[in-house]
Design brief:
Elements lengths: L21 E2 L3 H9 L6 H6 L2 H8 L5 H12 L2 H8 L4 E2 L1
Antiparallel strand pairs: 1-2
Helix pairs in contact: 1-5, 4-5
Length: 91
């Protein structure tokens, strides 16, 4: 086995599956729902349903596909786009 020079070694690997370092304000979903006349809570229920979220976090559904899918589930593509325009904030 070839030794890796110290300058080329990785000292740390940081992965964030959201909610650890990057956080999203639930007010963004509420605002999108209110703006588009949707029932409160409909966006998170659609977006974070286990069968959907699993596809998103494992890379089987990209952000665009997720946005379109949520939009179709809630009946408003614009609401889904407004909600996902929020990129979260770093803790």
């Amino acid at each position: 086995m070839t030794a890796i020079p110290a300058a080329d070694r990785i000292d740390c690997l940081l992965l964030d599956l959201d909610g650890v370092i990057r956080h999203f304000d639930p007010a963004a979903a509420r605002a999108a729902e209110a703006l588009h006349g949707l029932e409160p809570g409909v966006i998170p229920r659609a977006a974070f349903a286990p069968e959907i979220l699993d596809r998103v976090v494992t890379g089987r559904m990209n952000r665009r596909e997720w946005t379109e899918h949520v939009g179709s589930l809630v009946g408003s593509q614009s609401a889904a786009e407004d909600w996902l325009a929020d990129r979260g904030h770093i803790d």
